[in-house]
Amino acid sequence: MKMCVCDDTRKVDGNACVPRVPGDACEQGSKNCQGISGDLFCDAVTNKCSCASTYTASNGACVQKRCSDDLGCGGIAHIKCINTACTCSVTSELNRTNGLCESKGLGSSCVTDIECGLVTGAMCDNAQPRVCVCGEKYEMNDAECILKQPGVLYLNRVGIFVAQYIEHDEHFATFRCDYRIDHGFYYQIQWYLDGEMINSTDIVDSSKASEASVLKDVELYDLNPMVFQFDSKLRCRVTAFNESGTIAIKIVESNEFTPMKISSRSLTFTRGQSASFTVTLYVPFGCGTHSEDCRLQYLLYDPSDLYDCIDSTIAVLHSDTCGGRIKGSTKTDIETFSLTKHETTITIVAKNNNKYKLKSQFQLKLQTFSDDNLKNLWQGFTTTIAVHVTDGHSIQNSHCYAHVDPHMRTFDGRTYENQNTGEFILVRHKKYPIEVDMITQPCSIGGSKPTCACAVNVRAGGDIFTINHCSGHLTKYLSDKDGVLIVYRESSSQYKIILPTGMSVNIYLTMWGKNYWMNVDIYPSPHDINQVEGLCGNYNGDPEDDFIMRNSGTLLTPSSDNSKRIWPWGVYPDEFSFSWDLTHKWKESLLNPVVYENTLPWNRNQTFCICPGIPANNFQSVCSKHEDDSCNKTVVRRGTLIPGTLFRDKREAASSVKKHRVESHVKQRLNKMTNSWHNKVLHIRNKRESTSDPANMSSEEARAYCSDAFLSCASVQAAKDQIDTDLNKTLEDCAFDMVMTGNSQWVTAHCDAQTQALQMEIQKNETIAKVFPDIVKIVKDNSCPSNCSSNGKCVSGTCQCFDGYGTDLCLIELSKPPQLQELGTKGTCDIGKGDICDCIPIVGDGFVETAICNVTVYETNEKNVFTMSKALSRSCEYNNLNEICAPVQDVKRRRKRSKKTIFATMYQISVSNDAIHFCSPSKVIVLDGTCQDSFVDSAGDTVMILKHGYCYIEGRCVLEATTGDDSCTECKPASATFEWTNVCHGSSKHEKPNMLGIAIGIPVGILVLLGVILVSVLVAKKQMQNRTVQARVDVGLYDSTASNKTLQLREDHDLFTNTVEPMHIDGDGFQLELPEEQGRSPTSASTSRT
Q1: Reported pTM
Q2: Residues in contact with 701: Cβ distance below 8 Å, sequence separation at least 6, in sequence order
Q3: Which SS3 state, helix, strand or coil, does residue 579 take?
Q4: What distance in Å separates the CA atoms of residue 44 and residue 98, rounded to the nearest whole number?
Q5: Which PROSITE patterns does this UniProt record tie to the protein (predicted)?
Q6: Which residues, in sequence order, are CB contacts of 1041 under 8 Å at separation 6+?
Q7: Cis before 450 (ω within 30)
């Protein structure tokens, strides 16, 4: 499974990737610290990104220390204050493994000779890459340069030394013909490729010999591109001349140098297995302009293959490339990049096409490619690899089945009976996380024998798919982490599940009364040979060792005494069968939530990778965990692909929330079904029945009946003498079932099983269509399962239904309404659990693809009682015969409702297959189960209520004591159920001023004020009449003093008395009267106090 992760230079911070800063954790040899500005290193002691000794941490970066003199740099050795900045001295360099400035030695990078001055006799080499070397009068001895004896030639050994450097944003690999240069002599260097000389220098004196001894990679490529081929041999020859350069006095050659080696050019392996080879690169690879990853790829492909999956193909097992890749050096890490050989192992497999005749000889081409370094030489390495794939034991007719009640066959052809009830492992892979399980129960309601398969569960990596009709109906992915399971619904009753190895599981459903049961056929691929175990055996070509007990690993020999059995000719290895039973091993069951919620994903390195576009210069790799997806063109299969998430193909890609909704819904239904099945199994086993009473029919009569009945099975009759599908065994199984039950219904099931086997044999064996085209046509024309349920005609393999019947198998009488068993999860769709209720899941019996859903919508009114809003009719969304969903995403009326209404919707849904005859409606309520619940009152109305301890504010559930936008608001159901309570003042946050009181108070106040003024005027007149003048201000409503002229409003409780009920305005501008609240329950949404 692909996951988004942070790159090396970043760290996880919540849901984001943020740059690392000094002090963050790092791993030695990684690029963890390279995204931080400045000089720094990963401290080997603390494993943290640390600034170099000349730098200091500041604002998430390393900045150079400022100084005025050397003491300002701390007095640390080799650090100088240059231009007010602490810097390594000219004769030292920064050691990026410990962050210290250390003396330059031989091999240190340089530009001038002075930088090498601490090593006596050293100089800066003129040849690239420029490093400190011993001068021509000196020779190296234990990291020192010692003076040579003048006039003596010491040319004894020559080798090829490779190095790298970056100049002008371009990466170069250099090839040095390395030898001892002695002062006073002349030299000539010659280069040879596979024995032929490709370059010869002029004769130069010793001062120019070092520079003449080096060639860049591009220079070598221009001389001869074949230098850069797998296993090419490069040599250099040095000729020393006398002091005048006229007489050759000594010639020494290097050993052969191979730039790139391949361990083998010829591979042989058995089909289903793998083979590996190793590529070793000895040339430095890098990218000059890149600061991020720099990679060289090895691409393996077949030039003659169209990659259309018509025949076998060679694929590479890798996560994302059809070969391998190496990591090169960049500008940011070239100084610390280790110049060692790069070994890359490439593993190949034969990718098969589920046919018997498969290609075995291949001529593959391996070549290099880099879109980071575009030099021609890195696109030039090529070689051919011959591959021979051998076939082990024949895969023809190697298929395992569990038919009818159930008669078993292993991959290697061993047949036996397993008329037991339980949960059995059919196939468990030893190499890959693959498993196929079968669940059985009584074929008919009320009995205990015979038993039939009612469910098949398939796992591959992180995917688990179930087709389950044991005590209910469920056809779903239980887990969908990888996308490695491919599931097709081929018809109403047929499914095909294809696993990554190429193994396919074919399931055919039929009905016995109201019970579903199924035939299971498993077709392996060469990848499964000798890699499986379970009731299908070990697939090693030997049928005699198939009954391996699970726990002990011992081989069971079945009892030959079957005298008490109804069919004594059968083989009954019950002890072997029960050793693979999971009924009492719940921790291993694929139906256990702990298992399907925690499945480990497929190994991302075990994916099939091909490069079909290389001949057209398209170097993109195509990688998939599944064989089908790694084809150059889409593999067309019969039927409808079932997506990994419910109805994902009908709407937008499923979000993680929707995926959770599906899993939550599946878990609850599956839990109910599993518990019911377990109780049934325990009841049957407690009865300790090992046999059942035979029907009133002898074995001879049963054989004769089945043989006669099979005469009407046209496909089987046409092919019985030419195509081997073990018809005699099928006739015996049919007779067995007739003796056990006396029911002729088994004949149709066995005829269908034979027809399916013929179809698979024709598909896999291409010779049949060429040799017997007439038989192939008859089989195809008569391949309709169940003879079109006797309600139609089979024409060219397709059912043409009689009037009044529907589905592709004419199984449903359209005028009969389907039966609804469950809507949503027990009649609810809970958005609080992540459910996205835009399409209500419906489980039942007898749905057709054109089913019509009648939907009546109910919404809550101001009393939180559901009232009808609208009714409509629309097409249901079809999943299978037992599962549809009713689309309701856009049917809500969106009417405006009071803030004191609990927002919920109820749907009554009925379904019809002919748009005329509808079943009785069932209801489902869409709610937030976190705080909402419902009940039916005495009047029969459905009423919404709030759970204790919750508020319902602005359309969402709020837990008691939860604070709002500020510290003064809180959910307090006892005070206000639909609003925040202001805990600082003890009132509702949204409590509005008493507008009516104010409206009455203002005019009353004005009248009082006028009265006071009038009285004052009268008093003044009276006083004037009394010739008494008194200066006084008294306005009645205001308090004033001589020293304080601010007028304060005075409260008068007698003057402003409010007994009027307030009016409330909701958020949509509608004026609503709130209902009386006294005496109502605080938990009811329609009765909560605010």
Answers
A1: 0.75
A2: none
A3: helix
A4: 8
A5: VWFD (PS51233)
A6: none
A7: yes
Q: Please give the Cα distance from 406 to 536 (Å, whole number).
A: 13
Q: Of the candidates 960, 1020, 968, which has an alpha carbon nearest to the alpha carbon of residue 990? A: 968
Give Rg (Cα) of the chain. 43
pLDDT tens digits for range 725-734: 888 888 988 9
pLDDT over 50 at 1059, yes or no: no
83-112 pLDDT, tens digit each: 999 999 999 998 888 889 999 999 898 989
Q: How far is CA 76 from CA 70, 101, 1055, in A?
A: 9, 9, 87
- Give residue 959's identity as a one-letter amino acid code: L
Angle CA(1043)–CA(1044)–CA(1050) in degrees, nearest 5? 135
451 close to 419: Cβ distance less than 8 angstroms: yes
Q: What are phi and psi of 87, to 5 degrees?
A: -140, 150
Residues in contact with 7: Cβ distance below 8 Å, sequence separation at least 6, in sequence order: 17
861, 878 contact by CB (below 8 A) = no
Q: Which tokens in the block code for residue 50?
A: 């640390």
Nearest to 908 by CA among 874, 957, 871, 958: 871
Segment 191-205 shows an average pLDDT of 94
User: 1043 is written with which tokens?
Assistant: 């020293």
**Residue listed under structure tokens 């240059």:** 82
Q: Which two tokens stand for residue 902?
A: 């609990």
Residue 1086: what are its φ and ψ, rounded to 5°?
Answer: -85, -5
| Bridge-based pairing state of the strands 504-512 and 144-147 | unpaired
Q: Is 513 exposed, middle or buried (0-12, 13-18, 19+ CB in 10 A)?
A: exposed
- Report the chain's mean pLDDT, rounded to a whole number: 83
Task: Read off the amino acid at residue 239.
Answer: T
Mean pLDDT computed over 526-548: 94
Residue type, 802: F
- Distance CA(984)–CA(93), nearest Å, equals 66
Contact 349, 314 (CB under 8 A): yes
What pLDDT shows up at residue 290?
60
Cis peptide before 129 (omega within 30 of 0): yes
Instruction: Mention every residue, 6+ apart, whose C-beta is less than 8 A from residue 913.
Output: 806, 812, 814, 815, 816, 817, 818, 846, 847, 848, 850, 851, 852
In three-state form (DSSP H/G/I as H, E/B as E, the rest C), the secondary structure along 631-670 is CCCCCCCCCEECCCCCCCCCCCCCCHHHHHHHHHHHHHHH
Pick from 750, 860, 822: which is nearest to 406 by CA? 750
Q: What is the DSSP letter of 22?
A: T
> Strand, coil or helix: what is 997?
helix
Longest Cα separation, the chain: 151
Residue type, 339: L
Joined together, the tokens standing for residue 711 give: 């005469």
For residue 690, the tally of other CB atoms under 10 A from its CB is 12
Instruction: State the average pLDDT over residues 487-514.
Output: 89
Q: Residue 446: pLDDT band by 50, 70, 90 thresholds? A: low
- 660 Cβ contact list (under 8 Å, min separation 6): 834
DSSP 789: G
Three-class secondary structure assignment of 149-214: CCCCCCCCCCEEEEEEEEECCEEEEEEEEECCCCCCCEEEEEEEECCEEEEECCCEEHHHHHHHCE
| φ/ψ of residue 673, rounded to 5 | -65, -45
Give, as one character, the DSSP assignment of residue 787. Answer: G
Nearest alpha carbon to residue 642 among 632, 630, 650: 650
- 71: number of Cβ within 10 Å: 9
Q: Which two tokens stand for residue 824?
A: 């949503």
1019 CA to centre of own chain: 94
Q: What is the SS3 assignment for 987?
A: strand
SS3 assignment for 526-537: HHHCCCEECCCC
The token pair at 475 is: 């056809």
What pLDDT sits at residue 53? Answer: 92
Structural contact between residues 24 and 48, judged by C-beta atoms closer than 8 angstroms: yes
Contact 284, 339 (CB under 8 A): yes
